């Protein structure tokens, strides 16, 4: 057999072995398998993305430190994993993109799982359930008793949130999506919108923190909205199991409730 032919056969065999190796590193969905939990432990750090304008879940104190219920959960997850934690603050609608771009390891930012998000990420078990409530200018609460009363009005929501979907689905007037919760509040105070739809605890905080605002009776809770959960890259089941284990422990110890109550008290002291 000629040398050239032998080399050709050897090359084909090598390519075949490499192909088998690559196929062996894929998961059931056909995408390259990964193990973020092992990477986090090897790096001795978990990088968490959140939008720090969502009190009492994540917000800044007077010194500019990011605090809140979600931050306390992050600390407990890191402790159970035996690693440090790093928080990266960003706009809410950029969180999943950052996760997909490997800029963060986990999202813990008052995020509700929904079918669209579940196409891109894997969620932990839920840790907090809420309804959405309307914030309006002082003296306007009496104008809004039902969603129907929002007809012809402009409602601000934070871009990329469940509230944006809820407002559009309920056909609650004209919906204006803005980058931050604070942008929505400023738009309301500046009379650029008529109301803001927020998760109830966030709505309560903003109504309490701003003397010119108040809560309206209008609440929205749809059957598809799931409790807040942590999000990680698709099919990261090992990391999901680890975070679920921490959340199970925190619930059993009553710490999820205490984290929420402490965060509400911290908001009140600002």
Walk me through what this model shows.
It contains ten helices and twelve strands. The protein is of the alpha/beta class. The protein has two domains: 136 residues, Periplasmic binding protein-like II (D-Maltodextrin-Binding Protein, domain 2), CATH 3.40.190.10; 89 residues, 3-Layer(aba) Sandwich (D-Maltodextrin-Binding Protein, domain 2), CATH 3.40.190.10. The strands form three sheets. Strands 4-1-5-12-6 form a five-stranded mixed sheet. The termini are far apart. About 11% of the residues have low confidence. This is Amino acid ABC transporter.
CATH level-3 fold name of the largest domain: D-Maltodextrin-Binding Protein, domain 2
Compute the gyration radius: what is it?
23 Å
Q: Count structural domains.
A: 2
Low confidence ranges: 5-33
Please report the distance between the alpha carbons of the first and last residues. Answer: 84 Å
Name the average pLDDT: 87
Please identify the top-level CATH class of the largest domain: Alpha Beta
- CATH homologous superfamily annotation of the largest domain: Periplasmic binding protein-like II
Number of strands: 12
Helix content: 40-55%
Order of helices and strands: HHEEEHEHEHEEEHEHEHEEHH
The portion of residues forming beta strands comes to 15-25%
CATH architecture label name of the largest domain: 3-Layer(aba) Sandwich
Largest sheet: 5 strands, mixed
SS class: alpha/beta
**How many distinct helices?**
10
Shape: globular
Organism: Inconstantimicrobium mannanitabidum
Protein name: Amino acid ABC transporter
